[in-house]
Write a structure and sequence with these properties.
The complex is a heterotrimer. By secondary structure, chain A is an alpha+beta fold. Helix content of chain A is 17%, strand content 29%. Classes of the chains: A alpha+beta, B alpha+beta, C alpha+beta.
Chain lengths: 108, 188, 1000
């Protein structure tokens, strides 16, 4: 039962006030995309043991989407940040590296 | 023109707190850039734009912060039509959305010294005096439905929920306020 | 025999007698008794039967770890099985019955299993009941079901109420013994908001029973003083009768408070489930004594040494006149001393250690107790209660040296810290060689959202057993909670006793023969013996998790609180691997069983789930509507009149609507405002067809797909203004589609200037349908709704009978139809006026079934009937609603995937039976040949099927291979009863193909 702080309204929300939205920072593949790109967009997801980026919606609250960087093993939350970005902001990446020195950001 | 009918027709339950349906009340959902809307809000309703999770109130009107781009303007129901027209006129050149939601919601009031713990039985939100200060609006859930909670003053809590689940929320609150279930969790 | 002592008993109130019954026998106890102590006070030693062999079972323990003494408690709506007598408080009028026997507890036929024990070894069920497979259904399953379960299942509705309570603290301290009290006191001093919970009705834990002294006073006095201090602090919440359920991620903690168990019938919630969020959980949960494995250790009268002491000191109950103590450590000497001081006899202390114990042994010797060191119990003699113990050397194979008559055997194999709460979220354990137990490893705690430890242990739960060590540990932990430096607060001065080290003893005697090992119980409830675990190891179940499931060790309702460590030690011996390498099974919540009622909380009866009501709901209820669930709504299915059948009501509603006038409460339809400079562009992405060019005042039917191309919703869109559209969704789609729109706006096109608002509940919506629809609106007056002023697929707004409305000329029935949206608070008034004005036309309200039939007659699809998450618009002949011009829309790329463009996809057609009968719902059309599993090939299925009163015959819609190209062909649809229905493929529009009726 996670607690995630919604960056839009500042509430440390209970997991039951939130709705999960799966892996974050996936680039949309539209009509021009080839089959492989579209398959990647629609179906392929990472399943890391460790640092993971996710989308959540504060559905029983302010209704806004936001991003979460957390560890899938320990459930440590590195940061919650705006949904209006295609990649984790620099300071989020730095925060993760400070706590997980072996990790590095790789965009999809 | 028929008079507006509230979903529970003013229902009331007396437990260790009192649960009462209140309203009708005029409510306008207003979305837009809150900074840009502030002047219009002041002109139309005489209210300051609330900061995050706050409620501003003056002269029987109130404005509650709902999200970074939405506030809920509360005013007497007969004034809604006029306020919407004023907003539309004032905001012609500003991207915004204003919608009458007066009838989309139900309003319930919990009164009694243990009002906070009636909430605590139903919401995961921290409703202690420190967690939910007087004057703040907390959007959360009550059992299985979304709701907004506001401690008007100690011993007086207002609950806003969707109209269709008014009976469910009334029954939830009544069950939570049933004598014998007092906890006295929040000591003054 | 067991009996009540004349004096003593720190927890009982002798002036307050309590009457109760056990198996119909009327018995007496006192306030403060547990059911177990009251039973023992009445010489009830035999309280139940074990699960597999139906062996006689007596009370072993005095707390939550009790595996044996489970009873059926209460009657009727307060009946509950498997209640532990050791944690059940005695109350006036309590009724209890023993479990798992037939015909009676004393004489149980099932006990024959014990004679067959040789033939019912570990894994018996797996070995026996696997072949031949056909025997499963008729022989094995009934047999296993017959033997399954201990207590009876309750039959009545639960008479009690339950509730949840969400609470937020800095820290929760679990366990009201001296460790918990001291930790709470220190934490409270640092200003922490603290909750301290204790599972029993009394504070203090073991210290008062064990004779500990703190700061020169009796532990009981120190406890009372500490509670008095804590009670005055506003930052401390104290709860007795509150048991920890489990520790979950991010400091989520569940505890169950028993408010009404001891006060049945009181107008209280019976249980309150505390749902707590806190920064730190302190597990001051103490330790549980381990049994010793010797032959006959399951005979009633063999008890934990600590339990014998508890019954004497706390309840003034003597479990027997002659108590033989068997031990491998010093602590059990306390029991011998307590027994002796109560005026009872201790014929011998059997200490497996060659050199015996320390100071307590000297004390026992001074009391004149005979001490046999290096000795073991070869066998306990007795049937339904202990009659004697045979002694032998611990180091040998069990040659009996002496037999000592006795009533009780008090055993102690050492103490295991209660590490459950530490372990629930992944706290790791280390093997403590000195105490022969697993203790929390403070270097590998469970961590929370911030990456820091959020569970810590104090006192015996840390693996510290002495009073002074416990208090020092608790002080350190308590202060650390507040972030202060340890040492800033005085540690109370706890008494210390010199002890000798424990000797790990897993089998007694160590060389016992198989004959004896087959009588050494590990798991008393599930009948798992030392020989079973050894057999499991021999048969290759080397992982502790496998051995557990193979033998069922630790899988009973007590979850192995007594048996786990002994079991894995035996496994480790059998595998010749060190214990830490064998490891433990996983500790999972709940710590002790929790009632379903507590978990459900308020969610039962009328508020089991939210039921949504439209502004017109009360009219439907008052007028006898029969309801059907649509999402959380309850929509009228039909409105039967008098004794009318549902089918007849539906027929009447359709005929009246098609011939004159019908009203539908359509308030549940989703209504979403979409506004902004980019709203048109946005809707062109959301819908498959074009919405941006819609003219002011116009309506258009649109389809929405997911990115995979499948249909997710449909509905009519109206252009309300220059930058404003109103999107109607299906009843079930309102919240889902609003969320879908917000997701795209917030996470993909966040730079587009669009706002949405879900205004579904702001409006009551009433469909006025039928040839007289216009006339009834004209009667109400206020709007010009003629064909030229308000053509089909247009909308207008104004006042109807002085109610502000929007009128949409849209039809889902094929009739002339107006959907009128009015503010919800005036919806009922409008409905009443329409009924009144419609009376002269014989108006009928109609329900969802009539709605469904009428739309099917017109060949209109219904989301959820024709679609199931695998259907694309092209399958449904809706290609016309898919824009070819648009470069992109959600689902466009998905619909280009090979499988979506496959010409062999099943497509929508109408189906008609030759005899007019109704096709079965969901039936499949068979095709020649069979697949690899011997099943018929299929070539289509029925998606909607109804009796059409308009056509007076059955009609159906279905998806069929190459369907639209096969009009006139006949398909076969097997029914469930084996007969076959046939149907001809026809056009999906059955009624008014030209649309003449709605175009008036």
């Amino acid at each position: 039962m996670l607690i995630l702080t919604c960056p839009c309204c500042g509430i440390a929300a209970d997991e039951t006030e939130l709705s999960p939205g799966g892996q974050a920072h996936i680039t949309r593949a539209g009509p021009g995309a080839d089959d492989a790109a579209f398959e990647g967009y629609l179906f392929l997801r990472t399943n890391p043991r460790g640092v993971h980026f996710e989308r959540w919606r504060h559905s029983m609250g302010c209704g806004k989407w936001f991003h979460v960087a957390r560890c899938t093993v320990t459930l440590e939350v590195f940061a919650t940040y705006t949904a209006q970005t295609a990649a984790p902001p620099r300071q989020v990446v730095d925060e993760i590296i400070a706590r997980r020195p072996d990790w590095q950001w790789e965009s999809n | 023109m028929s008079d507006p009918v509230t979903p529970l027709k003013g229902a009331r339950y007396d437990g260790f707190c009192q649960i009462t349906e209140i309203g009708p009340r005029g409510m306008i959902a207003l979305r837009g850039d809150l900074v840009a809307l502030a002047g219009t809000l002041r002109a139309v309703a005489g209210l300051d734009m609330p900061c995050q999770r706050q409620v501003t109130a003056a002269g029987g009107n109130a404005c509650a912060w709902m999200s970074p781009d939405e506030v809920l303007l509360m005013l007497p129901r007969p004034e809604v039509e006029g306020a919407l027209a004023q907003l539309a006129a004032a905001l012609q050149n500003l991207h915004h959305l204003a919608a009458d939601v007066s009838d989309a919601r139900a309003l319930l009031r919990i009164t009694g010294p243990l009002a906070r713990e009636v909430l605590a039985k139903l919401t995961p939100a921290d409703v202690s005096p420190a967690g939910l200060p007087v004057g703040e609006l907390r959007r959360t859930r009550l059992a299985q439905v979304p709701a907004a909670l506001r401690v008007i003053a100690e011993g007086e809590v207002e609950v806003i929920c969707f109209r269709s689940v008014a009976q469910y929320v009334f029954d939830l609150l009544s069950m939570a306020a049933r004598p014998g279930g007092e906890v006295t969790l929040f000591r003054a | 025999m067991s009996t009540r002592l004349a004096t003593g008993g720190r927890l009982i109130v002798r002036t307050e007698p309590r009457r109760f019954t056990f198996n119909g026998q009327r018995l007496r106890g006192f306030a403060g008794d547990s059911l177990a102590s009251a039973l023992l006070a009445n010489d009830v030693m035999l309280v139940g039967r074990s699960f597999k062999y139906h062996r006689p079972r007596g009370i072993v323990a005095s707390g939550a770890e009790e595996p044996n003494a489970l009873v059926n408690l209460g009657t009727g709506p307060r009946f509950e099985p498997n209640q532990r007598t050791t944690t059940t408080e005695l109350f006036e009028g309590l009724t209890a019955q023993s479990q798992n026997h037939w015909p009676s507890l004393e004489f149980d036929i099932g006990a024959v299993n014990a004679q067959l024990a040789r033939f019912l070894p570990a894994g018996f069920y797996y070995k026996m009941f696997i072949h031949p497979r056909p025997l499963w259904k008729y022989l094995y399953e009934p047999f296993i079901r017959q033997s399954a379960g201990l207590g009876r299942a309750p039959k009545d509705h639960d008479a009690d109420r339950y509730e949840h309570l969400h609470a937020h603290f800095d820290s929760v301290i679990v366990g009201g013994g001296i460790a918990g009290l001291q930790a709470a006191l220190c934490a409270a001093e640092t200003g922490q908001r603290v909750m301290l919970i204790e599972q029993t009705p009394d504070w203090g834990g073991r210290a008062p029973v064990d004779g500990d002294r703190i700061d020169g006073q009796d532990a009981a006095d120190w406890i009372a003083a500490t509670i008095a201090k804590l009670s005055t602090r506003p930052n401390v919440t104290l709860r007795l009768r509150c048991v920890a359920v489990g520790v979950y991620d991010h400091g989520y903690f569940l505890a169950c408070e028993r408010l009404g168990d001891h006060l049945p019938g009181a107008d209280l919630p019976r249980h309150r489930l505390w749902r707590i969020r806190c920064k730190t959980i302190v597990s001051a949960t103490g330790a549980i004594e381990r049994p010793l494995s010797f032959a006959g250790n399951d005979i009633p009268g063999v008890m934990l040494a600590s339990a014998v002491r508890d019954y004497i000191v706390n309840f003034a109950v003597s479990p027997g006149d002659r108590v033989v103590v068997v031990t491998n450590n010093d602590d059990a000497y306390r029991t011998a001393i307590a027994v002796k001081r109560a005026g009872l006899d201790v014929p011998a202390i059997v200490d497996a250690r060659p050199d015996g114990g320390g100071a307590l042994m000297q004390q026992a010797r001074q009391l004149g107790i005979r001490i046999e060191t290096g000795k073991a119990v070869a066998q306990v003699r007795g049937g339904k209660r202990v009659s004697a113990v045979a002694l032998c050397r611990q180091a040998g194979e069990g040659a009996v040296t002496e037999t000592i008559p006795c009533d009780v055997v008090a055993m102690s194999g050492g103490w295991s810290p209660v590490v459950h709460l530490w372990s629930h979220c992944g706290g790791k354990l280390i093997w403590d060689e000195a105490l022969a137990c697993f203790s929390p490893d403070p270097t590998r705690p469970p961590t929370g959202a911030d990456g820091r430890a959020f569970v810590t242990t104090a006192g015996a739960a840390s693996g510290l057993l002495g009073c002074s060590e416990v208090l020092a540990d608790a002080t350190k932990v308590g202060i650390a909670l507040g972030g202060a430096t340890p040492g800033a607060m005085l540690t109370p001065n706890g008494s210390a006793v010199q002890t000798n080290p424990l000797l790990p003893v897993w089998i007694m005697p160590q060389g016992a023969a198989i004959r004896r090992r087959g009588k050494m119980w590990l798991d008393f409830q599930n009948d798992v013996k030392v020989s079973d675990v050894q057999l499991a190891a021999q048969e290759g179940y080397e992982s502790v998790e496998h051995a557990k499931r193979y033998t069922t060790l630790g899988m009973a309702t007590d979850q192995g609180k007594l048996s786990n460590i002994n079991g894995l030690a035996v496994l480790s011996g059998a595998l010749d691997a060190p214990i830490p390498q064998v490891g433990t099974t996983t500790f999972r919540p709940p710590y002790t069983p929790v009632t379903m009622g507590a978990l459900a909380g308020e969610a039962r009866g009328g508020i089991f789930q939210p039921l949504r009501a439209t502004p017109i709901q009360q009219w439907h209820i008052d007028n006898g509507a029969c309801f059907e669930p649509v999402g959380h709504w309850r929509r009228p299915y039909c409105y039967p009149k008098g004794a009318e059948s549902h089918a007849d009501a539906v027929k009447r509603e359709i005929n009246t609507t098609r011939n004159s006038l019908g009203l539908l409460d359509a308030s549940t339809l989703g209504k979403i405002l979409v506004k902004g400079p980019d709203a048109g562009r946005f809707l062109d992405m959301i819908y498959t067809n074009m919405m941006s060019p819609l003219g002011l005042g116009e309506c258009r039917y649109g389809l929405m797909c997911g990115e995979n191309g499948f249909l997710i919703d449909d509905g009519v869109v109206a252009r309300l203004g220059g930058d404003t559209w109103l999107c109607h969704t299906t009843t079930g789609g309102a919240d889902r589609i609003h969320a879908h729109m917000e997701e795209w706006l917030q996470t993909e096109w966040w730079d587009w200037q669009v706002y949405t608002a879900n205004v579904t509940e702001q409006y009551a919506q009433i469909a006025v349908v039928g040839p007289n629809a216009r006339r009834v609106l004209e009667k109400l007056g206020g709007l010009e709704v003629g064909k030229t002023n308000l053509p089909a697929m247009h909308w207008m707004e104004g006042r109807l009978a002085d109610i502000p409305v929007r009128v949409f000329r849209i039809s889902f029935s094929g009739e002339l139809s107006f959907e009128i949206a009015a503010p919800a608070a005036q919806g009922r008034a409008l409905w009443d006026m329409l009924l009144e004005a419609g009376a002269e036309f014989g108006v009928t309200p109609y329900g969802t079934e009539a709605l469904h039939v009428m739309r099917a007659e017109k060949g209109f699809i219904m989301i959820g009937d024709e679609t199931d998450g695998t259907v694309i618009p092209q399958d449904l002949g809706l290609g016309w609603a898919i824009s070819k011009k648009k470069a992109d829309f959600i689902g466009k790329r998905g619909q280009l995937r090979r499988h979506m463009t496959d010409p062999d996809r099943w497509k929508l057609v109408g189906l008609e039976t030759p005899d007019g009968s109704v096709l079965p719902e969901g039936a499949y059309a068979t095709a020649p040949g069979r697949n690899a599993n011997g099943q018929r090939h299929t070539q289509g299925r029925v998606t909607s099927t109804y009796f059409s009163p308009t056509l007076n015959r059955g009609i159906a819609l279905g998806l069929v291979l190459h369907g639209p190209d096969r009009i006139g062909e006949t398909l076969e649809f097997p029914r469930l009863d084996g007969t076959i229905a046939t149907a001809r493929i026809v056009d999906p529009v059955f009624y008014d193909k030209q649309g003449a009726k709605q175009d008036v």
